[in-house]
Design brief:
The protein is of the alpha+beta class. 53% of the residues lie in helices and 15% in strands. It contains five helices and four strands, in the order αβαβαβαβα. It has a four-stranded mixed β-sheet, sandwiched between helices. Helix 1 (6-17) packs across helix 4 and helix 1 packs antiparallel against helix 5 (91-102). The longest helix is centred in the middle third of the chain and has 14 residues, at 48-61. The protein is globular. The model has no long low-confidence stretch (mean pLDDT 94).
């Protein structure tokens, strides 16, 4: 399992504070389907069904995604409990987060 750099979690938290992040299954699916999603982050410890659902959605709508990190870290970074998936809706923030996750 590969964890995400702490800086990336800081940017994820910043996206939450800026209102440029969706969390919760329904909100994430809607953001991807509406074309608002710039980046999907799925935690490695998400259920197999959740991983499959969001990887398929992201592929179908052409949204880049990563299956990295852990649910607890992702949830803590946005200040909400039990969030295995988040969708970043801002291009600039998503680009910075992608850069940090890839390294």
């Amino acid at each position: 399992m590969i964890n995400i750099d702490k800086k990336a979690y800081s940017y994820i938290g910043l996206a939450q504070k800026a209102g440029k992040l969706k969390s919760g299954e329904g909100a994430c699916v809607a953001a991807i389907a509406k074309g608002e999603g710039q980046l999907v982050i799925i935690s490695e410890d998400a259920s197999d069904n959740t991983k499959k659902k969001f990887t398929n959605k992201a592929k179908y709508y052409g949204v880049e995604f990563f299956v990295k990190g852990f649910r607890g870290d992702l949830s803590n970074s946005i200040g909400k409990a039990n969030r295995p998936v988040v969708v970043i809706t801002d291009r600039g923030l998503s680009d910075k987060i992608k850069e940090l996750i890839r390294d």
